[in-house]
Amino acid sequence: MLSSGKIKSVDFYRKIPRDLTEASLSGAGLSIVAALAMMFLFGMELNNYLTFSTSTSVIVDRSTDGDFLRIEFNISFPALSCEFASLDVSDVLGTNRLNITKTIRKFSIGPDLRPTGSEFQSGPVLHNIKHGDEGDEYSGDGSVSLTAHNFERFTQHHPILVVNFHAPWCYWSNRLKPSWEKAAKIMRERYDPEIDGRILLAKVDCTEEGDLCRRNHIQGYPSIRIFRKGSDLREDHGHHEHESYYGDRDTDSLVKTMEALVAPIPLESQKLALGGNNETENAKRPAPLTGGCRIEGYVRVKKVPGSLIISAHSGTHSFDASQMNMSHYISHLSFGRTIAPKVMSDVKRLIPYLGRSHERLNGRSFINHRDIGANVTIEHYLQIVKTEVITGRSHKLIEEYEYTAHSSLIESLNIPVAKFHFELSPMQVLVTENEKSFSHFITNVCAIIGGVFTVAGILDSILHNTLRLVKKIELGKNF
Fold this sequence. Notes:
With 479 residues, the protein is an alpha+beta fold. The chain has helices spanning 4-8, 25-50, 151-157, 171-190, 210-215, 251-262, 341-350, 438-475; strands at 54-60, 68-77, 85-91, 96-97, 104-109, 144-145, 160-166, 199-205, 220-221, 223-228, 243-245, 284-286, 292-302, 306-312, 318-319, 328-335, 364-366, 376-390, 397-411, 418-433. The chain has eight helices and 20 strands.
């Protein structure tokens, strides 16, 4: 058994009897200063321990979200009708997807960019519309020519007025003309305007009546509109509630459609037509209420350089490039999966600068201020960089795509478009949280306490010996 005396011999902290120690005023002051210094340094160390720190590195893209990239958007075009607004996607690998409708929605908008009604239903795309024979000529005029002066009178006089808005230079208008005039003559013979008057076929030359066509939001030629007496509202910001005809354009199809429109209207009462029959429902759809359109939704694209293109498109209509204005306002444009606001808020505590370029174009407008006829295409060049954030404690992975944007307005020889070129960087930014160990924190605290205590002891010894020396000198002692 070890005696207590032998155990005491290994004591590193030998005690000095209290009666051999001496307290001084300078030592007391230095002790207070040392205690305050310890508290201050301890607070700094604790704050450093609780503060997040990160390291940033650039590595080759190691995407975990697949080979496709999601693009979300909400873009308003004040001068592009939803009737012809088309969203296309193409890339360098040869992918060409035209008139995407499955994942997007379109709303007619007014001058204030607010929707004027429910979602605009584009309906099925009719690629093979039947026309009359190209060699078929018809010299007569079965339809009535309308102008801005008599248009209102005719729409209010006949229960149904079917108008062909056309342009003499348009190929599709010229293809329609013989069939239209024949159908108009047949309908005039069956439903004499003077005796019956339930339906009338008319036409408007948009090169002569530009203002009238713009008031009816005509952007493609020919556009066949079906006006029903009493249903066309003109007092509400110029909205026009009528239908567009997208069916076959041969004489027999036109006559059959017109007959279906007249059938529900009794001759003696000439009441407002309430609808057609099932055979023509696919050919008739509501016309756009206004001349603007908001396009929102998302598309998935391959992670290669490509383009998102919004333009006026139709396989059976012509467009006057000088009248097309692709000015637009971007409410939202982002890449990748949507990050919940709470998650983004939590991450910004770690990385305050994250997310500043995630929606770089949001809230910006791109307006064509040039004169009509400039054929202005608006292009955006987007370079996308992926950022991954890995937190040290929960190992939560956040993936975000940030991008730079450069925009330009250029003259185009073709129909103007709004084009978004995108290119993904082969590199990505990796942000990792540096986790701090508790043992390191305790070690630093001990170092602070021991270091301050030691330094204070040295200073106290120097101060004490200095004061003793000064006193000896004052007493004249030789040492």
